[in-house]
Specification:
Length: 174
């Protein structure tokens, strides 16, 4: 497994529409393993393949919501290949979202509170599930990446410009 460099704004690759995986094979599984390693190294809870420069419809998510006896997050990573939103709830929920491709910037984004999603796992098995809570938000954020959409696209122009300005400032200091 390898930690891969993360693509950040304004890299144009983040605007690409990723291609479906035609066959889930060892190459897909290697990509998944590297993405999981990269997500943990960056302290993220989700990562889309395009964020490591691969325009393939592959996501990894691990909310790491549970802790063990030592207070360390319990790891339970999952891969979602060719994920598709089947339906969404009318009800919205708002989370303070961030993104590894827009480092250290956060903003409140309203999205459907629940969604029904289908996908393939890394063995090629098909799944369909109703998701809610943070997992529903994270899944929609990551699927957006596969369509070249970033969380800042859900903000008003004013707020989006503010986030990008703050990021430019942060990079100058660093
Ligand atoms: Ni993101």
């Amino acid at each position: 497994m390898a930690v891969l460099p993360i693509v950040e704004v304004p890299d144009p690759r983040l605007r690409l529409v990723s291609k479906p995986v035609e066959q889930v094979d060892d190459t897909t599984r290697q990509l998944v393993a590297d993405m999981i390693e990269t997500m943990y190294a960056a302290s993220g809870i989700g990562l889309a393949a395009i964020q490591v420069g691969v325009a393939s419809r592959v996501l990894v998510i691990d909310l790491q919501a549970e802790e063990d006896a030592d207070g360390k997050p319990v790891r339970d990573p999952k891969a979602y290949i060719n994920p598709e939103v089947v339906s969404v709830s009318d009800e919205l929920s708002t989370y303070n979202e961030g993104c590894l491709s827009i480092p250290e910037q956060y903003a409140e984004v309203a999205r459907p509170a629940a969604c029904r999603v289908r996908w393939l796992d890394e063995q090629g098995g098909a799944h369909e599930e109703e998701l809610d809570g943070l997992l529903a938000t994270c899944m929609q954020h990551e699927i957006d990446h596969l369509n070249g959409v970033l969380f800042i696209d859900h903000l008003s122009r004013l707020k989006r410009d503010m986030v990008l300005k703050k990021l430019t400032k942060l990079r100058k200091v660093a």
